[in-house]
Design brief:
mainly alpha, 43% helix, globular
Length: 88
């Protein structure tokens, strides 16, 4: 079975995405998961530049600030970045 067709485990474990790593660092919490809303998790507009810099250092890509206001969880941001970069 190829990596593309392998099902994701559904055991409550979250992925180790760049967005998830950035959220955990900026929000200073290991309790953050793929569905944690940045703003409900303690983030605010003044932390967004720090979040984007952290994400950029992990991924090599700097997304626009507006993205965090439109998609505020690691899962949503990963999906949107994949679409923006031409993925599916």
């Amino acid at each position: 079975m190829s990596a593309v067709s392998m099902p994701r485990p559904d055991d409550g474990e979250s992925s180790d995405s760049h967005w998830l790593q950035a959220f955990r660092e900026v929000l200073n919490s290991t309790e953050v998961d793929d569905d944690t809303d940045f703003f409900e998790g303690g983030g605010h507009s003044m932390l967004i530049p720090k979040l984007l810099l952290c994400y950029e250092s992990l991924s090599g890509c700097r997304p626009p600030i507006r993205l965090v206001f439109e998609f505020s969880t690691p899962r949503e941001l990963e999906a949107e970045m994949a679409m923006l970069q031409g993925g599916r």
